[in-house]
Amino acid sequence: MDDGVELVSRYMEGRHSQDVADSQVRMEVDYEQDEQRDSGVEDEDDEDEDYELEEDIEDEDISAMSNVVAQGRKFRSKAWREFVPIQVDGEVTEGECKHCSAIISAKRGDGTSGLRNHLQRCKSRATVVEALNHMNASLMTPDGVSRVWKWDPEVARKMLVRMVVLHEFPLSIVEYDGFRKFVSSLNPSFHMITRKTLKNDIEKDFDEYKKSLKELFGSAKSRISLTIDLWTSNQTIAYMVITACFINDCWKLGKRIIKFNTLETPHTGLSMFNMVLKCIRGLNFEDKVFSITLDNASNNGRMVKLFRENLVARNMLLWQGKFLHQQCVAHILNLVCQVGIEYLDPTLTNIRETAKFIRVTGNQKEQFADIVTQQGISCEKSLRLDVPTRWNSTFTMLNIALKHRRAFDALERQDPQYMYAPSAAEWDEAKAVCKLLRVFYEATKVISGSKYPTTNLYF
Questions:
Q1: What pTM, to 2 d.p., does this model score?
Q2: Which of 40, 161, 304, 321 is a Cys-bridge partner for 325, taking CB atoms 3.0 to 4.6 Å apart?
Q3: Within this chain, do residues 224 and 323 fall inside the same structural domain, yes or no?
Q4: Any idea what the CATH number is for the domain that residue 318 is in?
Q5: In what order do the strands lie in the sheet with 238-247?
Q6: Contacts by 444-451 with C-beta closer than 8 Å and gap 24+?
Q7: Does residue 206 sit within a domain?
Q8: Which domain holds residue 238?
Q9: How many Å apart are CA 317 and CA 223, to the nearest integer?
């Protein structure tokens, strides 16, 4: 899937549809609504005055129990709620049991006694009814009031897809014997799907969500601003994520991730331009772009230049694209803070080596924890390593280390193998720089907000 399966985690609304044989026509609608609005020919079957479900279970609890309509013929019998009508030459002649897939004769004019008799004998249905009765009897709200529970296999399958995508489980999880038995213990009527079907469901839901994005942006009355972020993982794989921000009809700030992809080398402005342009064309909002916010790297500047020239030539940008390129303030603050961090390089090296030292073995971890307790240090956070390319993680590491200063000194006295204790002068420098960095740290948190506008905070 070109746009990445990550987008599926922002889950789409709707319902799944199942393929049935070409000879079967199935439409499920609400029974009560059909009686009020349908004007088709009524079924000649009796109205099942003697047909009743189990006393302790509601009609709507049975899997997919909804009334059926086929080519203008409305089935009034409740029995049809548990059968799929099978047509031959446009006439319903049989019904397929939704519980055990048995085929029962149901010609027009013969009534539904055959269907009802089968439901009384169907062992699969009996198992479902027993399970539902048990669950309905045990479901209680926090205040002790019974709650009616409705089993919907489509919702269950939708939640299965969401779980696999959200937690990045392998598709083969649906074939694990332990997982199948676990699901069966929760509800024996759920028919587990195969990994191929799961894959198809994920791709289908992704396509449906992408379609909903097109509709969302197509009906948007505001301009749309883009933010683009690029980074390289520990596996030296480059990624690009594009987020679209807009104001909805209720004047609320909205945002959607519209692209999450690996970025092929070379990471030139031209390759980035092609990817961004293809993305917004696919979602059909080229004429609604207002601005792009990204770092001030040279390839980013080249990409924005190409993007501006392309849209201006087609009269799609306001004010000839004067406000198209917005610099990322958080990135500017990052550059400023990196200079201050470089000043503390010797001290930071000792702190990093100390963090590595106490993590080598479990004994050293316990030793340092005992020293922290002996020194009466009440800091709830333990010493951690930073990510050198993220200055805010370096600030956090430095801030925690300052609170453990006495533990560093005690470790130096107690363990002759420990050679990384900062000097008193280095601690004083670290304290001074940390005080300055805190201001930038708080500012970065404010301007990095995603649920409120931030432009007004620094203009």
A1: 0.58
A2: 304
A3: yes
A4: 3.30.420
A5: 253-262, 238-247, 224-232, 289-294, 325-327
A6: 444/330, 444/333, 444/334, 444/392, 447/329, 447/330, 447/333, 448/330, 450/255, 451/253
A7: no
A8: 220-327
A9: 10
**Do 366 and 416 share a domain, yes or no?**
yes
Give the span between the Cα atoms of 451 and 253, in whole angstroms.
7
- Tokens read off for 451: 């649920």
Q: Rounded distance, CA 313 to CA 277, Å? A: 14
Do 84 and 98 contact (CB within 8 A), yes or no?
Answer: yes
For helices 345-359 and 424-447, give the axis angle rounded to 10 degrees: 90
Among 303, 327, 351, residue at a domain's last position:
327
> Last residue of some domain: 278, 301, 327?
327
Residue 157 lies in a domain: no
In a domain, 365, yes or no: yes
pLDDT of 30: 35
For residues 306 and 357, state if they share a domain: no
Q: Is 344 found in the same domain as 285?
A: no
Per-residue buried b or exposed e for 101-119, using 16+ beta carbons within 10 Å of the residue's own CB: eeebebeeeebbbbbbebb
- 297 and 362 in a single domain? The answer is no
Asked, for residue 431, whether it belongs to a domain, the answer is yes
Q: Please say whether the beta carbons of 447 and 457 come within 8 A.
A: yes
Kindly state the DSSP code that residue 146 receives in the 8-state scheme.
B
User: At CB < 8 A and 24+ separation, what contacts does 306-311 make?
Assistant: 306/269, 306/270, 306/273, 307/273, 307/276, 307/277, 310/273, 310/277, 311/286
Alpha carbons 99 and 97: distance in angstroms, whole number: 5
Nearest partner of 54 among 134, 149, 155, judged by Cα: 134
Cis peptide before 153, with omega less than 30 degrees from 0? no
Within this chain, do residues 357 and 280 fall inside the same structural domain, yes or no? no
Length of the chain: 459
Residues 226, 280, single domain; the answer is yes
pLDDT tens for the 459 residues of the chain, in order: 444 333 333 333 333 333 323 333 333 333 333 333 333 333 444 444 444 444 334 444 443 344 444 555 566 777 888 888 888 887 888 888 888 888 988 877 777 888 888 988 898 888 877 776 666 655 555 555 556 666 778 889 999 999 999 999 999 999 999 999 999 888 887 889 999 999 999 999 999 999 999 999 988 888 999 999 888 876 788 899 999 999 888 888 888 999 998 888 788 889 899 999 999 999 989 999 999 998 878 888 899 999 999 999 999 988 888 889 888 888 888 888 888 788 778 778 888 888 888 877 778 888 888 888 888 888 878 888 887 777 888 888 888 888 888 998 898 888 888 888 888 888 888 888 888 888 888 888 888 777 777 766 655
Structural domain tally of the chain? 3
Looking at the structure, tell me whether residues 234 and 311 fall in a common domain.
yes
CB 418 within 8 A of CB 411: yes
